[in-house]
Amino acid sequence: MTSLPLHPLVVHLPIALAVLLPIVALALAIAIARGAIARRWFWVVPIGLLLTAATGYAAMSTGELDEGKVGRLIGKKLVHEHEERAELFVWSAVGLAVAAFAVAFLAARSFGVTLI
Questions:
Q1: What is each CA distance from 67 to 8, 18, 90, in whole angstroms?
Q2: Can you give the pLDDT at residue 115?
C-alpha cells in the first residue's frame, strides 16, 4: 500500500467522471438518435451522475480525515475554500442525478424502455 493520504487517491475518480460523463452522454445521444444502439443505454447517464455524486462524497469524506494535516501546511482558509467547492460539486452532482433520473423515467415510460 502507499503512504499517501487517502484523499489524493480517491479524489481523482469523481473528477474523471465529471469530465468524461458529458462526452459519454453526447456520444450516447448521437448513437441513440442514429439507431446505432438501443434506447435503454440512456440509463448510463443518470447512473454515471449517481456514481459521480457518490465518489464525490467519498472524496469529501476522506478530505475531512486529512484536513488537520493539510491545514497546518497551507492554512485553514484554503482548506475551507476547498471544502466549500467540494460540497458544491457533490450537491450539483446530486441535483443533476435527480434530474437525469426523472428525465430517464419519463422517457422510459414514453418510449416503453426498461433498464435491462
A1: 12, 23, 18
A2: 60
Residues in contact with 27: Cβ distance below 8 Å, sequence separation at least 6, in sequence order: none
Q: What is the SS3 assignment for 4?
A: coil
> CB under 8 Å, gap of 24 or more: what pairs does 2-10 form?
5/62, 5/65, 5/66, 5/69, 6/62, 6/65, 6/66, 7/59, 7/62, 7/63, 7/65, 7/66, 10/55, 10/58, 10/59, 10/62
For 17-43, how does the pLDDT look when each residue is reduced to its tens digit (9 = 90+)? Answer: 999 999 999 999 999 999 999 888 989
- CA of 74: how far to CAs of 4, 56, 67, 71, 82, in Å? 17, 22, 10, 6, 11
CB 94 within 8 A of CB 53: yes
Grid coordinates given for 56? 464525490
Instruction: Evaluate if residue 80 carries a pLDDT over 80.
Output: yes
